[in-house]
Design goal:
With 241 residues, the chain is α/β, with parallel strands linked by helices. It contains 11 helices and 8 strands. Strand 6, helix 10 and strand 7 form a beta-alpha-beta unit. The N and C termini lie far apart (49 Å).
Length: 241
């Protein structure tokens, strides 16, 4: 199957150099401390994001970054306890939140903003909201995933894609085409209930906070791939403590 892959930088915004400048990141780090203080006392995330965001006059994109990068300490602790060491990836099948992993890595390769969150995960702020197109970075990402799976001796991988997202079927076919070079069994499942399916399973690959809070166990594969293969990634760390 042939694809005409358009060269696109996933997850970038023209004002990112302002919103995530060194000065702006220092302000975001200060805001995260205040946000975390409130979250640890069970304040509602949406209310306190509005409160803190208005106080610092953050843009919508900065507020999204602050929200995605910050979780209360109880949730961070519980997620960490369920996170498996990469060496365990060789023991059984991985169940992969496909769009979550692939888009994050596409943004990393594009040098878009990615966040080192206070629960140890890497998250993006691409904000595609149900729309997706295969780009040139998708090809590179799937090559890297295949290399990482080989290094980890992953025996099998199942990708789950949200069927409601545009081009999910095309991405599924693209994954299967690439996986022929991986020398392991790979399956792709399209579903309208990906989150609820993965939330009940072990050995999940995702950074989705809802899934992480409910699944039995998970791997922090996106961060490992970025550490191993994408040294040029533009990582913003808001956790200064």
């Amino acid at each position: 199957m042939k694809y005409n892959l358009k060269s696109v930088n996933r997850g970038s915004s023209p004002k990112d150099n302002i919103w995530f400048s060194s000065e702006a990141v220092l302000k975001l780090q200060k805001a995260q401390k205040e946000l975390l203080w409130l979250l640890n006392r069970d304040y509602n995330i949406h209310s306190v994001i509005e409160l803190v965001g208005n106080h610092y006059q953050f843009s919508t994109r900065q507020r999204n970054a602050l929200q995605r990068a910050t979780s209360p300490k109880t949730k961070c602790r519980n997620r960490l306890l369920k996170c498996l060491h990469p060496v365990s990836a060789s023991k059984d099948c991985l169940y992969i939140d496909g769009f979550n992993l692939i888009i994050t890595l596409e943004v990393a390769i594009s040098r878009g903003i990615i966040l080192l969150c206070n629960d140890g995960t890497i998250r993006d702020i691409a904000g595609l909201r149900g729309t997706y197109k295969i780009i040139d970075k998708t090809d590179a990402v799937l090559n890297i995933i295949g290399k990482e799976f080989s290094n980890l001796s992953v025996p099998k991988a199942n990708f789950f894609l949200d069927s409601a997202v545009s081009n999910s079927g095309r991405l599924g076919a693209f994954i299967l085409e690439h996986s022929k070079e991986w020398n392991i069994p790979v399956e792709v499942e399209l579903s309208s209930k990906v989150d609820s399916i993965l939330s009940k399973m072990p050995r999940i690959v995702t950074s989705d906070s809802i899934i992480l809070d409910s699944c039995t166990s998970w791997f922090n594969i996106a961060k490992k791939i970025i550490d191993d293969y994408i040294p040029s990634a533009h990582i913003i760390n808001l956790t200064s403590y």
